[in-house]
Amino acid sequence: MTLATTTTMLTPVTEQLTRAGQAIEHDSFATIDREAGPHAYSAEQWPVVRRMIHANADFDFNGLTRFHPGAVAAGIAALRSRRSRIVADVEMICVGLSAPRLAHFGLATHHFIADADVIAAAQAADTTRAVQAMRKAQRLGLLDGAIVGIGNAPTALIELVRLVREAGARPALIVGLPVGFVSAAESKALAAELTEVPWIVIDGRKGGSTLVVAALHALLGLAETREREEERTSS
């Protein structure tokens, strides 16, 4: 049993599964490092920014991305606890995440945007489904200790900030990257004012679910690297 557990820990799950795939990904990251040049991010923050650049080939994220000082450490700790979960504003985020990587950390994903009760509540209150989806996650007790990823709906992020401030919701980390022209920039600026919980945001209108997936994959990679380093030093 011990041998099997050790073998699992030493088998990478957050990299490409073939040498060819790994070579392409590593070459892409090396190109980004070279072309990005000097930056102000820490050694743990840069892999998150770099993977976001990789997802969209957009170097604007080098500078637009902002981190709460404890964001990366909080994300890694939540993942390694194997008691966390991912709550997303839209299904696209959940579908985009690697199943083996989620399984490695015992992560379940949740989204409620298409639930019938969420739609009915939004229609009754003349609000958005995204708002009601965040409220449902709070009612179910899923926000506390979760990594919440928002890439599509600014109203979801605005509501999440309200739930933190007024309802005592305490996510482990907010990855708030909604894209758009109405309230997107404002929602992220609002999230960046939070002191109660750590956050990662992108200034301005840019964002999207693919960037949330990229950021989460970067955090999964960092968490596995930390585990593997500790495994090697303890063996």
Structure, briefly:
The protein has 12 helices and 6 strands. Helix 5 (about 70-80) crosses helix 12 (about 210-235) and helix 10 (about 155-165) runs parallel beside helix 11.
Give a quick set of tags describing it.
235 residues, alpha/beta, Rossmann fold, six-stranded mixed β-sheet, 6 strands, 9% strand, globular, disordered N terminus
Q: What do these coordinates show?
A:
With 235 residues, the chain is α/β, with parallel strands linked by helices. Helix 10 links the parallel strand 4 and strand 5. The protein has a six-stranded mixed beta sheet with strand order 1-6-5-4-2-3, with helices on both faces. The chain contains twelve helices and six strands.
**Average predicted local confidence, pLDDT:** 92
Radius of gyration, taken over Cα atoms and rounded to an integer in Å = 18 Å
Distance between the termini: 16 Å
**Biggest sheet architecture:** 6 strands, mixed
Low-confidence stretches: 1-9
Strand content: 5-15%
The CATH architecture name reads 3-Layer(aba) Sandwich
State the domain count: 1
Main sheet strand line-up: 1-6-5-4-2-3
Name of the CATH first level: Alpha Beta
Tell the overall outline: globular
Query: What is the CATH topology?
Result: Rossmann fold
Task: Please state the structural category.
Answer: alpha/beta
* CATH homology superfamily name: Cobalamin biosynthesis CobH/CbiC, precorrin-8X methylmutase
The ordered string of helix (H) and strand (E) elements is: HHHHEHEHHEHHEHEHEH
| Quantity of strands, as a count | 6
Give the fraction of residues assigned to helices.
Answer: 55-70%
The number of distinct helices, counting runs of at least 4 residues, comes to: 12
Protein name: Precorrin-8X methylmutase
Organism: Roseateles saccharophilus
Keywords: Cobalamin biosynthesis, Isomerase
GO molecular function: precorrin-8X methylmutase activity
